[in-house]
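queue> pop job 88
queue> type: inverse folding (structure -> sequence)
queue> payload:
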């Protein structure tokens, strides 16, 4: 978040610049700021989703491991059909 804000605030003068030659630099500034905003929003959405899927994969693989290797677990494992 801090890196994105630093980059965005650094590109802000390009996006709102006035003076000679600003018409050439303004599209670059707007695209930088817009891209940073979109990428930050996507990161806020995808990071929790990826962590949830990794947790589900961990739980699923743990169940499979316990079923295939019951000798590693001293507790009683129910037989199929119980």
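queue> result:
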């Amino acid at each position: 978040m801090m890196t994105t804000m630093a980059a965005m605030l650094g590109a802000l003068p390009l996006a709102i610049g006035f003076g000679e030659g600003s018409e050439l630099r303004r599209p670059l500034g707007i695209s930088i700021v817009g891209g940073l905003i979109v990428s930050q929003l996507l990161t806020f959405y995808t990071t929790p989703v990826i962590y949830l899927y990794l947790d589900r994969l961990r739980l699923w693989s743990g169940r499979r491991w316990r079923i295939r290797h019951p000798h590693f677990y001293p507790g009683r494992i129910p037989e199929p059909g119980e």
